[in-house]
Design a protein that fits this description.
Number of strands: 13
Radius of gyration: 22 Å
Order of helices and strands: HHHHEHEHHEHHEHEEHHHHHEEHEEEHEE
Largest sheet: 4 strands, mixed
Bound molecules: uracil
Shape: globular
């Protein structure tokens, strides 16, 4: 089957067959399909879309382009969460140990940040000694003994996605629902999970700004994942303000430690984390209802069991044994601290969330290109939530920077991102919607 014939059919709005899609992805993996051909097909899909059955065939072909992990020897359900990405979204750091403390096994394969959104892997890289690319034996041992291990993508999982994503990234073809669906799910299916919960973000800091688009993406993900036999549901959660009070890398890890130990828990962060934990327990079959899932998750948090799992995961992957007790010593700290001051009295009426993410990039804590290095110490803390009352001269946030110039540039962005209004805005729901499905059988 000639790749150009497959491209021609999609260009002409035909429905591709499973064998055409499989042949194209096999060629992409083997290197017989060129970057130009991959880009042309990606653009044809971007413009003309794909039916669900085509997106499913693409997902399965990309899953099968590399290794598929097998966790059938784990003594409990193997589950994971995937977020479409946001600002101050450090949920994974708390969620994996909470769910592990409730009896699940969470082999979480996470990504690095790109553009305005942060990545779990960059956050964990700020912990001295923590290995985000351990050998397979260590990964399996930590998952088995601790219940969770958060590591980075390996080259052997869904290599076709790696190639196609690199092409999409430079050809304006990322924002296509079938392509995003196949990209995310091929990696999750290759990770060998038994169930999955998706956190699809919506709002001015998210990939999908409009509720309609977020619902379309969530529905596509849930239908294709269940079609592939992976029990999956999705929560659509708000990203019109940073989720945690911190944005950056080391600062988000410190925020997660405070959350797990009970030193400080932001309300919205707690709500979203516990809702996702309950959903994971429900989908994994460890709870009969969301209410029971919530109760179990809260208990794992309040009893300190989740904090203990996090500590063991960090140590098991090479980090310090006393990380929870002395996180401030083990995390890098930026030399400059600069308060961003409110110019007037009022209430936080809106936050241009994407600008907060870009302020982290300005500080050096995020990357514009995949190959860029980052500064793990810089970031923002004390970010005021929507609806908070503030007086002129009080801080909206604290910038942690390498140099005063960077701090002032980031502060300027943050000040402009915060709209201070006379009236308190009406509260917004942290969880907008739940979308669920049943796995295909046979
Ligand atoms: N994340 C992915 O892994 N793939 C996409 O296409 C978009 C977001």
């Amino acid at each position: 089957m000639l790749p150009q014939e497959i491209i021609r059919r999609k260009r002409d709005r035909q429905v591709l067959t499973g064998s055409e899609i499989a042949a194209f992805i096999a060629g992409l993996t083997a290197g017989t399909v060129t970057d130009a051909q991959a880009a042309a097909l990606a653009m044809a899909v971007f413009l003309n879309g794909m039916r669900r059955e085509e997106a499913l065939a693409l997902t399965l072909a990309m899953r099968d382009s590399g290794e598929v992990l097998d966790w059938s020897d784990m003594p409990g359900p193997v589950t994971d969460k995937h977020s479409t990405g946001g600002i101050g979204d450090n949920v994974s750091l708390m969620l994996a140990p909470i769910v592990a403390a409730c009896g699940a096994y969470v082999p979480m394969i996470s990504g690095r940040g790109l553009g305005h959104t942060g990545g779990t892997l960059d956050k964990l890289d700020s912990i001295s000694g923590y290995r985000t690319q351990p050998d397979t034996e260590t990964f399996r041992r930590v998952v088995r003994q601790v219940g969770c291990a958060i590591i980075g993508q390996t080259a052997s999982l869904a290599p076709a996605d790696k190639r196609l994503y690199a092409v999409r990234d430079v050809t304006a073809t990322v924002e296509s629902i079938p392509l995003i669906t196949a990209s995310i799910l091929s990696k999750k299916l290759a990770a060998g999970l038994q169930s999955l919960v998706l956190d699809v973000k919506v709002g001015n800091g998210a990939f999908m700004e409009k509720p309609r688009d977020a619902a379309a993406l969530a529905t596509s993900l849930v239908e294709v994942a269940n079609g592939a036999g992976l029990r999956t549901s999705a929560l659509i959660t708000g990203m019109s303000e940073p989720l945690a009070a911190a944005a950056g890398n080391a600062v988000e890890v410190a925020n997660a430690v405070d959350f797990l130990t009970g030193t400080h828990r932001g309300q919205r962060l707690e709500k979203v984390t516990l809702a996702l934990a309950a959903e994971m327990l429900l989908v994994a079959g460890l709870a009969d209802s969301q209410a029971e899932g919530l109760r179990l998750a809260r208990q794992a948090l309040e009893s300190g069991a989740a904090a203990e799992r996090f500590a063991r995961m960090v140590h098991g992957l090479g980090g310090p044994a006393d990380f929870m007790e002395r996180a401030h010593v083990h995390l890098p700290r930026a030399p400059v601290e600069h308060a961003v001051i409110a110019a007037r009295d009022g209430f936080v009426g809106s936050v241009a969330t994407r600008s907060i993410g870009l302020a982290v990039v300005v500080l050096g804590g995020g990357r514009a290109r995949a190959e860029d290095g980052i500064d793990h110490a810089v970031g923002i803390t004390g970010l005021l939530p929507l609806g908070a009352e503030v007086r002129a001269g009080e801080p909206l946030a604290i910038v942690h920077a390498r140099a005063q110039d960077d701090a002032e540039q980031a502060a300027q962005r943050i000040r402009t991102a915060y709209a201070i209004e006379d009236a308190r805005p009406s509260p917004r729901d942290a969880i907008a919607r739940r979308i669920h499905g049943s796995p295909a059988t046979g």
